[in-house]
Design a protein that fits this description.
This protein is mainly α and 138 residues long. The protein is built from five helices and three strands; from the N terminus they run ααβαββαα. Strands 1-2-3 form a three-stranded antiparallel beta sheet, with helices on both faces.
């Protein structure tokens, strides 16, 4: 009798895990990694909080290469969308990166194709660096 109960309990647990996995996968269908917790190897956006290293954040903000949202092109400061949304893009084996977006809607678009938008940031940083290299030193 114990074996039958144990078997029934095991099947119930397995079914529950299977069902939970299915619901979990459905939450991830829009690639919103902040909801579905994709592995860090593929990268994920994590919201900036009061626990974020303040020195790192200040440096990342100072070095941020664009004044507009890389997804929509809206101004990040003083634009129609309100205060910029700030995230840290975490990817295994890579340094953390600040990502500033104009709104939550852009967060959803960013997570669908982060490489596209990270390339825009990289290109802007390279252009900014090139411009700075051409400036005379004082």
């Amino acid at each position: 009798m114990k074996t039958i109960r144990s078997l029934g309990l095991s099947l119930a647990v397995a079914a529950g895990l299977f069902t939970a996995g299915t619901a979990f996968a459905a939450d991830c269908k829009d690639h919103d990694m902040t909801k579905c917790g994709q592995a860090a190897a593929s990268g994920q956006l994590v919201g900036v909080t009061d626990k974020t290293d303040a020195a790192w954040l200040a440096k990342a903000r100072a070095e941020y290469p664009v004044a507009d949202c890389v997804v929509s092109g809206e101004k990040l400061e003083g634009g129609d969308m309100g205060k910029a949304q700030e995230f840290i893009y975490k990817q295994e084996g890579q340094p953390d990166r600040l990502v500033r977006l104009c709104c939550k809607g852009c967060q959803k678009d960013f997570t669908k194709d982060p490489a596209k938008y990270l390339k825009k940031l990289d290109d802007a940083a390279a252009a900014k660096s090139k411009d700075m290299a051409g400036m005379p030193m004082k």
